[in-house]
Amino acid sequence: xxxxSEWLKLPVDQKCEHKLWKARLNGYxxxxxxxxxxxxxxxxxxxxxxxxxxxFVTDSNAVVQLKGLEAALVYVxxxxxxxxxxxxxxxxVVSKVFNQPKAKAKxxxxxxxxxxxxxxKGETVQEELLKGLDSKNPKIIVACIETLRKALSEFxxxxxxxxxxxxxxxxxxxSRDKGVRDEAKLIAVEIYRWIRDVLRPPLQNINSVQLKxxxxxxxxxxxxxxKPTRFLRSQQELQAKLEQQQSAGGDxxxxxxxxxxVPQIDAxxxxxxxxxxxxxxxxxxxxxxxxKWQERKEALEAVEVLVKNPKLEAxxxxxxxxxxxxxxxxxxxxxxxxxxxxxxxxxxxxLRKKFGQYAGHVVPTILEKFKEKKPQVVQALQxxxxxxxxxxxxxxxxxxxxxxxxxxxxxxxxxxxxxxARSFRHCTASTLPKSLLKPFCAGLLKHINDSAPEVRDxxxxxxxxxxxxxxxxxxxxxxxxxxxxxxDRIKECxxxxxxxxxxxxxxxxxxxxxxxxxxxxASSGAAGDKDTKDISVPKPGxxxxxxxxKAGGPPKKGKPSAPGGAGSAGxxxxxxxxxxxxxxxxxxxxxxxxxxxxxxxxxxxxLLDSSNWKERLACMEEFQKxxxxxDRTEMPCQALVRMLAKKxxxxxxxxxxxxxxxxxxxxxxxxGNFSKTSAQIVLDGLVDKIGDVKCGNNAKEAMTAIAxxxxxxxxxxxxxxxxxxxxNPKNQSETLNWLSNAIKEFGFSGLNVKAFISNVKTALAxxxxxxxxxxxxxxxxxxxxxxxxxxxxxxDEKPALLSQIDxxxxxxQGQSPPAPTRGISKHSTSGTDEGEDGDEPDDGGNDVVDLLxxxxxxxxxxxxxxxxxGDKNWKIRKxxxxxxxxxxxxAKFIQPNIGELPTALKGRLxxxxxxxxxxxxxxxxxxxxxxxPNIKQHVKNLGIPIITVLGDxxxxxxxxxxxxxxAWAEQTGMKEWLEGEDLSEELKRENPFxxxxxxxxxxxKLPTLxxxxxxxxxxxxxxxxxxxDRNGDVRKKAQDALPFFxxxxxxxxxxxATGKLKPTSKDQVLAMLEKAKANMPAKPAAPAKATxxxxxxxxxxxxxxxxxxxxxxxxxxxxxxPDPKKAKALGVSSKAKSAQGKKVPSKTSLKExxxxxxxxFIVVPNGKEQRIKDEKGLKVLKWNFTTPRDEYIEQLKTQxxxxxxxxxxxxxxxSDFQHHNKALAVMVDHxxxxxxxxxxxxxxxxxxxxxRFFDTNTSVLMKALEYLKLLFTLLSEEEYHLxxxxxxSFIPYLILKVGExxxxxxxDVRAILNRMCLVYPASKMFPFIMEGxxxxxxxxxxxxxxxxxxxVESYGMNVCQPTPGKALKEIAIHIxxxxxxxxxxxxxxxVTVYNVHGDQVFKLIGTLSxxxxxxxxxxxxxxxxxxxxxxxxxxxEKPQRTQSMSSNANMxxxxxxEDMSSKLNQARSMSGHPEAAQMVRREFQLDLDEIENDNxxxxxxxxxxxxxxxxxxxxxxxxxxPKIRAVSPHFxxxxxxTASTINFIISQVASGDINTSIQALTQIDEVLRxxxxxxxxxxxxxxxxxATFMQLxxxxxxxxxxxxxxxxxxxxxxxCIIGNMISLFQIESLAREASTGVxxxxxxxxxxxxxxxxxxxxxxxxxxxxxxNLLVVKVLEKSDQTNILSALLVLLQDSLxxxxxxxxxxxxxxxxxxxxxxxxxxxxxxxxLDRILLDIHIFMKVFPKEKLKQCKSEFPIRTLKTLLxxxxxxxxxxxxxxxxxxxxxxxxxxxxxxxxxMKHSMDQSGSKSDKETEKxxxxxxxxxxxxxxNDFLAEIFKKIGSKENTKEGxxxxxxxxxxxxxxxxxxxxxxxxxxxxxxxxxxxxxxxMEREGKGRIPSSTGIxxxxxxxxxxxxxxxxxxxxxxxxxxxxxxxxxERLKILRQRCGLDNTKxxxxxxxxxxxxKPAVPTVASSTDMLHSKLSQLRESREQHQHSDLDSNQxxxxxxxxxSSSSTANIDDLKKRLERxxxxxx
Length: 2033
Hints:
Number of strands: 0
Distance between the termini: 85 Å
Oligomer: single chain
Helix content: 55-70%
Radius of gyration: 47 Å
């Protein structure tokens, strides 16, 4: 009890964690009570339990857990902090609750999950549940699915994301567990309820039975749209209101809601994108151009199949689209046109928006092709153009469509109109603005008057659709001149139209309101018009407001005000429309008089033409009174003005009468329904009087009134043409002045700029200065509205005039156009949906741009110009760009079609030459101005690449790019930029420059926008990563941009997007969001956003208030004022925020230790490769300087920021040297623990250390060198290999320090250089050190020379680069140096070379001055060192081993990233020296340690035996060995014989230069083609094959990837290589010399080549692949059969082991093996079975049967079985005798397998050969009767006699004789011819030699122990120094045969068995067979063979080189050579002991 009371005293939270279950139970119960009591969701109590809730749900005791779950549920429901626990609690529920047997636990678990969703944590919950689906426990999976299903059913598909669930559904349907499958079915039904048929495509591949069941379930579902039954917290209040409304007034809005809800998932989104470009037939582009239509059809059908994929992966489809477009446009076969159209449809449907960029190219072609009449073609074209329309916008293709509308062909006109009609259906009022509608209506109105009925019908349909989409108010202004019949027809069509987007209620209402307007005459709206003038001011107020609220999309807040506004506007509008639509017929003068007399006093009419001016004046006064009192409806305007124009009319001489007359005209225009007809009667007179001093003002007033009645644009046009058709300059200048004023009063919208400009140009050319001045003033006013583009029209004016115009523009700069005060009522009638807060001027502005005459420049963008721009030579590229700039400048304004120019310019944006990049940017700026808003269509393919340039490291390039982007955005607006994923992709790049520039730009642009596309949300994750970027500037910019993102997306969305972040990041970002929320600019503030239109600037904001009534204007100005402040405040707050941001780190700095605990180097995958790529692509500065400039340091800092801990970076780049010391100390500490990080950032570390070399502080330098020593030691242990990039940016600077005055530093640097040779080839170090000898610092020169000497001493002559000759000449120059130490060093180095190389040195040095030469000779004498082999060898041996190890590891680590070409050069130039080992691939790497422990001494000596074994025999004994070792291929002057020439040519085959290689191959080919010369190649075959496949590798890795290389060159090289090989493998004697390792690599190379898809894409690629096929067959047939079979087995094994290897590769290897199996019956006798079985044994060891069976393909196991089966069949039981090379056979799977097979075959064939298999079987004649023996022999002789089986017969006879040596075969031979007898004897001898030569241990033991010596399958008695078990690989088989025979003859066959290491130790049980790769042989091959072969080439061995068909002719070499051999072998023996 005591215990109990203990825990009872504890507080609740501790009870919950107690180890006693009772305590926990009690704790949970109490918690539950506490939770139920807390009323305030924000109570601090909740926070106490934050960390415990997970324990509540994961309690180990089931009973306690239940209580915990109940408590947790209440907690989640009520606590405001519960959201923080979502992840851990839900994952706890998934793993620990869903697997409980109790149903109650599961229910509570599900409830908790649903509750989390309710508190807005849906995403996290869903993520955890989806993770649960990967669980192994089906219970958990079932519960997770059930939870997801319930969540979906309750919350709906808006909250639960369906896409991830649908993705895993097919996997769930495949589950083994029935429960899971059933649950999957239920959730599939639930999902179907929400998204209907969208679910079908993703589930089409599931089991058909399941699909059928689902279909049945789906049919049962109710058809109504589902509604969520449970809501998120944020929605619950809304829901409550909604329910109240519904109960009050039906569910009008509820219904609307559903409509929105259901179609939210797009089937397209759920599909996987398919990549099709690579799957196009290789010859597609040729076929599509073929002359035969069938071929073109094939090509198109191939594409059609591919584009049927419903979703295609984005890519560069430009060429494909171009090809298809060509077929549609040009092909004569209509069937193909239809097919191509179908392909385009498929592309458009599969790519969606991504196809948009190609739409502009294709649309005109398709529209013009509508001239075809065939219905299937028309239908295909219609489908294509409709699909394409959906990928772009009407705006983008409008130009093309409008251009086609004027086509003469009626079918084209009809189809275009129908297309427009279909397109309109997809539009909404906002996507079909007035600016678009206007040109379309104009074109369609032409069509409704067309002679062809089908054209008219189509046009009516299109206009009807437009009417339906945007409402009559918007369309009517364009239908002014349409008669009633046609108007009715349009309306009739409009009623039939069904739109794609459902109409919103608001629009419908609006439409009803305006329906009665058009055809009716004005009778209704006069009420309330008391005084026109008074009303004309307030009118705009409500009118403007109504549309204003509607501007941003469906009106929400605007809704209440709209009806009022629209109502009051309605009356006005009716009048307006009547006025506008009254096109009065011209009345005769009589009718006018009659009408006038009805309204005017009689006297008035009589006195009109009185001759007394006073009477006329009195008449006018009466006239005026009458007009003032007249009612608008009764005023016959035309009659009245005709009266006024009656004689004397406008010729009135008395100014008072005239003034009166003009005033009356103004009155009539204001008060009556004044038509254009009336206006035309008076305008001429008015213009005539405008220049009059006294009457001018009245004339202007009258004109203004007319302009108000008849619209300014029309009036202005009339007035201008009248003024300029007369000569009076006064009238002209005054007309221009009036117009300037009128524009200010009326605004600019609708004015025809073109017409004005021509008149203004006339005026500018006038002689009268007043006219010119007025014209310039008018231009100034126009400039306010049109902007800078206006100037472009006047650039050709005289400079003096131009400067005046500029001065006028300058004055206007910065001013905004005044608000229009007149004509607004009429304007709104002319109307637009878009009467937004101040769009008028914008509209005007845009109209201006639309009206500019644009030039078509696409014909000037020729393919020559495009290829110039893409030329390799930068000067030609520049010429091309200059030409483009010229074309654009000349054209001024251009049409949007610019041909291939975009792709050409895009390529130049990443030009390596920065000047060209800047020039391209300038051109793109010009282009934006020249193309105007039409540049929109190029945003995706040209605009986005400009943004990429913002990431350039050069400041000026970035500035230019920013200016260009701004110039574009000014023309396009921001919508195009923000749509799609492109912008977010840019922001994703981790380039600090790009990020900060782009964020800065967005921060500037976003606040000016009213609305943004939804795609803006895609940028948010990258914005968050920028908030945590390493670069401070990026962070700051991201923080500045945050409020503006939030302004458009809202806090909720932004906060939701943090869900994907790591917890730590999430908290930080949320904190920033909170701050940003406080500073967020208010979104509805229209003025802030009114600047969105490019032209208007901020004008609209300024003039908006004036347009309203007085109170309105006051209120809105008050609203306006805070806005700029707000913006400022925002600026301040963002600063404050960044300041706070800075404080945060200061807090963390208190916890600095924690901070520094992490790794100091962060491993960035592929970071180093990317940096190297950037440097190669000149994206960053190359690390090359005499002293480091700031930009280098900055660049390094930026590069380090991503992979070095921030605090360490601060230390590293601190200005104080002590911090550098600190940094170095930290780096030393972390060196061991962070190897990977160090290697990942090695290039940066080395670069930073080079900066330290320029520091003056010695302590830093010492520390740096200390670190370097440790670093290089580590690197060599890690077997790392320095990249070229690392070496070149470090070694030169290290070498500078060799000349340091302090001894200790020099010593350290030398030590580092020494260590570097272990991680970087000495031959590559050599040039760097050589460079150091040119320094001015004599110490440095001396040290470098000394270092060179050491290199030569350690590594032989081959380190001398580029050739020993050149290198030594350069070294020798220093013998004459001023400085004594330098002279000594130079002399010492040359003496070292002399020691290695003997007298050849003098040849290499060339001529020296006498003095120098004597010094050198003196020094050589003094040193008196004769060449001695041993020391060099020892020195060489060690690095060699380490080198090969390090290089292997390096190859492993870096793979192809390493620069192959440099390796090849190395391998070539250094032939025999250690570095060559770096080519060794991992599979062939040796286990050196094991071999070393085994018998080290032997290994050091052995290379001589393996590699020189024969060649040395034939040299004069005097030549010291080392000389031969060190000779390099470059010493041509030393040799003159064939062998050295062949060696040299072969070394060139692997050249990195294609031409060199081709020349070498041609020479070899000549040799091979002439039978008599071909023999010269003998002995060089391996060497030649190695060079060849190195070249193949080089082409594969380097040349093919090199885009600058012509692919024809590569094809040429390939054909040379393949041709050569085919020639070689036709000569059997040579082909057999190829050894296993070489054949393996050769086959590897050839198969890789056959699989290289890049080749197939080339023109002659197929031909190459066919030739390779042929070659492979030759190789298989002609090579030594043992070697090739062995090679294929090893290759198969490697390819199956290598994960990277493609299954195709293994398959081809197996096909080769099958071919070999087919050849086996003929070749079995020439095969060394022991070796093959050993290979199979090793294979089976690596791949036991079980492992083979796991392979995806069954082929490997079948191949192996077939091979063994065939061998068994051919060999019978004897096969078991051939297992001699396998130690502990009993364990071998192979033996067991063979036994089984044998047993099987025995069972089948009886025990015929049973007895032969017994090892110690006694003679056959004792066991069986004589007759049997005779039968047996007879059988054998029969075989020998038959042609086919001769060989087999001889082989059997040989075996028989060997077993039964006393058998008598005489009787059988007696009866045969002499020839046959000798044939048989000879045959047996051959077989004997062959068998002996193969070194197989036969079953009998009576053979001399010489066999024991050669029992290893190696050519030599033991293994080579490199420890290859299959030594034969190391030296070609030829030498081996020769050596054996020589050995026998020399009596060396009695070597004691004990002297040999036992077999087991040699084989050392390799897990992976260590077949020596041919590259190991480079040590020997490329050097020793070259030299050694030269000597023996002259001896009589040539004839002995071949050993065709196993016959071996004995060598007849001189006894001297044999003696030499004896000595050598004795030496070996003694060294072995």
